[in-house]
Design brief:
This protein has helices spanning 2-22, 43-47, 49-57, 69-74, 88-100, 121-129, 151-159, 191-203, 215-225, 235-243, 247-250, 258-272, 299-310, 312-320, 336-343, 363-373; strands at 33-39, 60-66, 82-84, 106-108, 111-120, 133-135, 146-149, 183-185, 230-233, 254-257, 279-284, 286-287, 289-290, 294-296, 324-325, 356-357. By secondary structure, it is α/β, with parallel strands linked by helices. Strands 5, 6, 7, 10, 11, 13 and 15 form a seven-stranded mixed β-sheet that branches. Strands 2-1-3-14-4 form a five-stranded mixed β-sheet, sandwiched between helices. The mean pLDDT is 84.
């Protein structure tokens, strides 16, 4: 009997010791709350194994329904405890509508991530040769990973129908007879594509107002920039395509979030002990810092919102995933991300101080522009929409 039971007892004791060390000893005896959430690109945060482990310590599990940020804002949310749209326009629409209806909505802004254009070294160097891009200073970078992109000159090249070969990309060892363009996700469903549309509209406005302030202005602005937009891939596939071996031939310049690239470089460094210096970032001279809004729709969701805003482990994990963490006042909290990247020998992007901070249009005018540029049905904005 001892020969049979001693190994079993040893296994049980080992398991208990492991649970005790991880802080999960009492989890089998405690109730775990399953929260229903709806979001787009920020689902990567909740699908992270370390985030799931931290939440489980708080007896919380999250079930995600994937949806574009625009769809999150325009569909019924009765079955969900929280939503996490990737940008401010969709978040403002949700909170505005719920406030008008007297419904629960509480906002947390845990982190931000700038919109960037991700590309490959040959393309960035070709843009540099043409005076369209400029290397950004970065600590420890022998070959720059980060460039400032003159958006006006970049859009001028698209407007003129220039091709990569016209800019002399052959000098960098490849040939590409395709038009210069930035590939974005489908603007009808993606916050990053809608934000990029707003950036293009802001840059291409000429002497007009910074953002449309009427239906007529929104319609005219959308028609004027439609030919400057290239879209089609689902939002989840754009960055995955970029980091795939085939990415350079499919979409050499893509719209992305900064945190996606930084997180990729952290993983690449950990796995290969070197940087991927063939993939680089272009920071548009007109900056849009997208501000994801965690919106709790009831008290259950608010529990998670509080954890997102205050739990040190969750905040650190978000920073490790490339996000710029915000303090309670909504400002970037210190230089944690810079320190984290430096510790892992990853150059820290030093954004130029003279970049223009671009405003977002009101949601009703942005929606009108999206429907024209994306050839999608106009959104039926609920009563109370801003």
């Amino acid at each position: 009997m001892l020969l049979f039971f001693l190994p079993v007892l040893a296994t049980v004791l080992t398991g208990l010791a492991t649970l005790a060390v991880s802080g999960n000893l009492l989890l089998p005896f405690e109730s775990v709350v399953v929260l229903e959430g709806k979001m787009a690109s920020k689902r990567d945060f909740f699908e992270d194994e370390e985030v799931q482990r931290i939440l489980l310590k708080h007896r919380v599990k999250v079930h995600i329904t994937s949806s574009g940020s625009r769809e999150v804002a325009l569909r019924d949310l009765g079955a969900f405890d929280f939503v996490f749209p990737s940008g401010q326009p969709a978040g403002d629409l949700i909170t505005g509508v719920r406030a008008a209806a007297g419904q629960y909505a509480k906002v947390h802004r845990p982190f931000v991530s700038p919109i960037v254009l991700a590309t490959y070294r040959e393309y960035a160097e070709t843009l540099y040769d043409a005076g369209i891009a400029t290397p950004l200073p970065a600590e420890g970078a022998d070959r720059p990973l980060y460039y400032s992109l003159d958006m006006q000159k970049f859009l001028d090249g698209i407007d003129q129908g220039k091709r990569w070969n016209d800019l002399g990309i052959q000098r960098h060892g490849i040939s590409n007879a395709n038009r210069i363009v930035a590939q974005s996700p489908d603007v009808c469903g993606s916050n990053s594509a809608g934000t990029y549309l707003a950036l293009v509209s802001f840059t291409w406005r000429g002497d007009g107002p910074e953002v449309p302030s009427s239906d007529q202005e929104a319609s005219g602005r959308a028609q004027s920039v439609k030919h400057l937009m290239e879209q089609g891939l689902p939002a989840a596939d754009v960055f995955r395509t970029y980091i795939s071996p085939e990415g350079k031939g499919i979409a050499p310049v893509v719209v992305a979030y900064e945190h996606q690239y930084l997180s990729y470089q952290v993983r690449y460094r950990a796995e290969s002990e070197r940087l991927d210096r063939e993939r680089v970032l272009l920071y548009p001279s007109s900056q849009f810092v997208t501000q994801p809004q965690f919106i709790s729709l009831n008290a259950r969701g608010e529990r998670l919102g509080e954890l997102m805003a205050t739990d040190p482990q969750l905040r650190r994990r978000a920073m490790e995933m490339g996000f710029r963490i915000l303090d309670p006042a909504g400002q970037v909290a210190g230089d944690q991300l810079s320190q984290f990247l430096t510790e892992r020998s990853i150059p820290v992007p030093a954004l130029r101080s003279d970049n223009t901070r671009s405003p977002m249009p009101r949601i009703r005018y942005l929606e009108q522009m999206i429907s024209i540029v994306g050839d999608c049905p106009p959104a039926q904005l609920p009563d109370g929409a801003p």
